[in-house]
UniProtKB/TrEMBL annotation:
GO terms for cellular component: plasma membrane. Residues 9-244 form the ABC transporter domain. It comes from Caballeronia calidae. This is Branched chain amino acid ABC transporter ATPase. GO terms for molecular function: ATP binding; ATP hydrolysis activity. It comes from the Bacteria. It holds the Pfam family BCA_ABC_TP_C.
Amino acid sequence: MAEGNAVLLQTTNVTRRFAGLVAVADLNLTVCEGEILGLIGPNGAGKSTTFNLISGFLKPSSGRLEIFGKDCTRKSPTEISRMGLVRTFQHGSYMRSMTVRDNILLGTIHWLSGASSAQRQQRVAESADILGLTSHLDRVAGSLPHGIQRLVSIALALATRPRLLCLDEPLTGLNETEVASTLNALRTIRERFGCTILLVEHNMKAVMALCDRIVVLHHGQQLATGSPSQIRLNEKVIAAYLGSRHGK
């Protein structure tokens, strides 16, 4: 993360309660322009709740959410996505019965207003190429292997050309070769489009290789933040989550 980069997303003491359960407590999360930030933690740490809060699918019980410098604490998911924060979901963000081409085309509807069909198809082709989906464009998305379906979700989100792309476990179901190519694709997305990326991911080897900075959640609270090398050596993080997972 370069010093002085603009803050694209900031949560200030954001808390979310479900009845008597505090799922996220006093979260102060900052995402800066141009970085790839990893959000990690054990199951139940509050990662999915955090993603739902920043994308508008949940509202904070208390605290403030700012996106691109604007108060978005009570904005809807549609309002937030149209501002340029677009997310994928852990269990897929695509239409199973549609072709890969038509899925990615959906991502252009609100973001290429007035564009010609040729311009939309160019956007589809470019997005598919980056994610290695060109050979699958005319196949029905639901018929593809699970890992490839993950890439369809990312391509659909990429077609909107977001300022901030939030990916929920994008590497689940991918083999080692597919993981490597997807990491390269995410780097390309940042470099080519100036896209900032926030991801939740359990593949620690991939997180350490890809991310500029990592935030660790534990029991709904922010346990640590730092570079991959700092997180790898953080004793609290090792005790709470990493253990031998970081591949030392």
